[in-house]
Amino acid sequence: MDTASAVTKKVIAFGSKQVFLPKFTIALVRTPNLSPYHARFLVPLNFSKYDLRDYLYHAYSIKTHNIRSFVKQMPVRDTIQLPRHWFREQSKKYMTVEMEQPFVWPEDPKSWEPWGKDENDDRIKEAMRMYGSRTMSDKRKEAEGIREQARAFLRGDVEGGWDLEGKTKAKGEGETEAKKEFVGKGDGKTLLQRWEEKRTPVMLGRRALRTE
Fold first, then answer.
1. What is the CATH number of domain 3-99?
2. Taking the domains of the chain in order of start, what are their residue ranges?
3. Long-range CB contact pairs, 17-26, < 8 A, 24+
4. What's residue 11's pLDDT?
């Protein structure tokens, strides 16, 4: 072995451990803002830069130079099933490598309908809404809907109720006679005054017991 080969092997050393059935998963992330000579991967937390360099070289014959890594910490959130049960999801580790040969992502198809992308996105949104994985925009939208419900109820101009998004239903949909009698009056009285008129001695007695 000549001196040049020895120096090259010493400077650019690769791992000698052979892995036939890896227990890890690496995902190539689509990054349209990066140059064709850079690629970003989602790797396990215990993955090092040398592990990714060896993996790309032995599996795909890709030579890499500079590798940058960062760990993204996930936010703290709770769920609907267990309110105020705060937890933090596992962090995610990303690595950006610089390659010798460029790689250009293929263009998106004109329509994702054959792959069912729209249906899959709807299922994900519905699952996130049911299990409490909501974004800040969803929470703001829900809060705005509740605010509109309260305003409409205080004005006394709601007859049919509301749906989950805070929109008023059509007149007569889900409407009861008691609600029409309680809210649907246009006598100019406030909601508190109409509620005081509906109070019975039994209700007053229960309230007295609670205050004592």
1. 3.30.70.330
2. 3-99, 146-211
3. 26/52, 26/55
4. 55
